[in-house]
Every structure is written in structure tokens, then in C-alpha cells.
């Protein structure tokens, strides 16, 4: 038995001021065939990683293709996308015959000329291998679950958790189902329910916590092989945006249809009830300062690099400096130039520094201040689940009672290492401000005595009615208040 695996992935914010090119992939994940590290999966490469670990023991041969992935930003250059895609397709052709394919994709990638990159890749793979080859795909729940990819794949499994702490477990599920299908043990059939809504679904809080626990308990019982909820990625202007439910059953389409409908209708009933409340900057900081314990974690989802934002908005930072807030730390601010200046000045130096507020009007105005350089670290990283996320060279500067972490590789806050790398202990600060939507909760949730979500003027508005869509199929909630669910579409 021969399986082929490869990755091509990013999360595309089509409104981002930051374009995505081949160089961005080179800076993140860029492994040619056989080059993937052995220590841990990287962004979206878990299917290849788990297949490599299990191949010999389970009696199949793994042919490894290239793995390319970039941090979330704007639309990928067309020529660069086609170059990476065609390299992988060429590797697949050279590997023929293969019995199965394992693709690690994101699900919300857009390239110029391709609104549905993943559908394009899967469709081209299908054309190469024919109808009998079993194609299994792992996707991020912040994906656009298009009909092109559903109709061309045999198995699609999405991460269940947000923050995405179950990437490896879901890759194991994909491999299990591909192998079981090839061995004739199961006959997967898929059903998709379209809720016609754009919404956020953090799984660290109710009601999504109980829903995820419930669907996990359903899998492997009564003919249900897999259940996935596509949250959608709200900042991709593509036609098939929106929440969808995917159920895979063992040969029983009616059973899959029934469960997809049941769960889809439940999600429709939760419109406006799954995301945490967001406060404005002044109200959120005032609430955090008034709280009588520490640390209070303040999240800034509007400037989340994980959603394609620059991560250099200064709204919250300027406010806490002006209010003379003490015992506060904030990060990350992406500013490679400021980091370089800090390294040139050296640890302990006091210098005038301009930082932040660089990329777009939504970045706010730069901060101009006399700062003390209190931490420096080369080639730093932070943890996110089983992976290490590079933050590049980073510097910590102090302005009054506020410490700010500046990074040279753009990313969101995921691990405590973002601060501890440069000598800041977030457990001992009153306010810990993180630029992230919910991935921070895996590491910061356990230490937080309180979590507050604040909306800055960053480029990711939490009210999706403010997003200037042009391609989205209408009607859809909340853009259209009375939008009805479409129901079963596959």
C-alpha cells in the first residue's frame, strides 16, 4: 500500500494590507520532499508527520511530498501559488501508482485567480490519481468548506478545538479513516449542512465546549465515523464563506444527513451566543485594573496576526501608557526595525524609540517614547500545542510601568515564552495584553484570573457587518438579519 502526503497552506485575509509571496513561505514552512523535521509537525503538516511515524508498523509506504506554509496575511501571489502547487502535483505524478493521498491544508487560502485554492489542489490530485484512490484531507475549522473540495475528497476532518490543540489527533483520524477505507473496513459517505451564518466559536467556553465534547463522543459509534464543524474564516471575501457542519458516516447517507441537520440547526439556534463580549479599549482596561487579583489577560483580537493583521496596532498600548497603568506587559508588537535598533543599543540602554503603527491606517499612530531595553533574545520561539512557533529576534522595552515585547517574525501570542524569553513573568503582572483571538487561551487561560476581550481599531473587526465583503453569497447572517439556513447541500 502506497500513500502520498504533502502540505500547501496559509490562512488568507483578503482585506489584509500584507501580500503573501513565496518569500513568506520560505520564512515559515518550506520543506522539500523528505526534508520535514522529525521532532514535531509544523503548520498544517500533521498528516505527513503522523503517517511517517506509523508507516513501517502499519505496513504502508509513505511517499513524502513538499510542505509549504505561510503565516496568515493577504492573498498569495498567483505565480508563487502555481509554482508550489505544481511542484507537489509533479511529485504526485512521479509517485504513481498510489492508493491514498494525505493532504495537510488550511482551508482558507486564497491566491490571485483562485478563490478556492484547496478545491483546486484536491481537484487536480483527483484528476491525476483517478476515482479509486482514497483522498484524505485535514483542514483548520477556520476554513471555507466548499463543495469542490467535498466532492473531490473521500475524507475531510477538521480540527475540533479553537485554540487548535488537537492538530495531531485529527491527523491521526484522517490516517485511520484512509487506511480503514483502503482495507475495506468502512465506506465513508459525507453530508454537509449550510447554516448561512458568519460567527466565532471559541471552544474554551460554553456553549461550544459541550458541543465539541458531545460530537467527539459520537464518533466511532452507531456508524458515525467523523463529525466536523467548519467555523468559517470571516476575513476571506469568497463566495462560500460561512458555518457548515460535515458528518461522515459508514455507508449510510441518511444517517449522515440526519446528524448534520440536527447539529446545523443547533448552531443556527446559537446565533450571537457563542463568542465572548468585546469591550472598547477604555472600558476593558478599566475593568482589568479594577479587578482585585492577577494576572488579568486582555485579548486584542482585532490586531491578531493569526487572522492576517500586521500586529502593530498601538491603541491599547497608548491608552495604558497615558493612564499610567502599572505592572502591565503587552505583546507582540511586530516591528523588525525597532528590534534591530534595540539590539544595536544593547541590554540596559535607555533610548528614544519609535515603534508600532507602521503598516496601515488600522495600525494607529507609532509610539514615540524614551524606553529602557530590559530583554533581548535571538531566534526566539513560543509554544503552540505540539509545535514551536518562531518569533525571530525579540526585544522587551519598558515605558513606565509597561513592558512591551517587540518581535521580528510576525505572529500572534500563543505561548508564555513570548514574555519569558525576555525575562518577563506574565504570572506576576497585573495586566497581560495579548494580540490574539483565542489561541492564547491554551497557555494563558490556565494562569488568568480573568480574561477580557477588547476591540481596538485593528483591521479585524469583531462585528462582521463591518467587513466590506463583495463576493459572499447572500443572504447570510449577520449581514442579513433574517437569513435562513440553506440546510443540506451535500
TrEMBL record:
UniProt family annotation: Belongs to the peptidase M81 family.
Keyword annotations from UniProtKB, A to Z: Hydrolase, Metal-binding, Metalloprotease, Protease
Its job: Involved in peptidolytic degradation of cyclic heptapeptide hepatotoxin microcystin (MC).
Microcystin LR degradation protein MlrC C-terminal domain span: 298-471
Taxonomic source organism: Reyranella aquatilis
Domain of life: Bacteria
Protein name in the entry: Microcystinase C
Co-factor binding comment: Binds 1 zinc ion per subunit.
InterPro entries with a match to the protein in the record: MlrC, MlrC_C, MlrC_N
Cofactor: Zn(2+)
The Microcystin LR degradation protein MlrC N-terminal domain, residue ranges: 2-287
Entry annotated with the keyword Electron transport: no
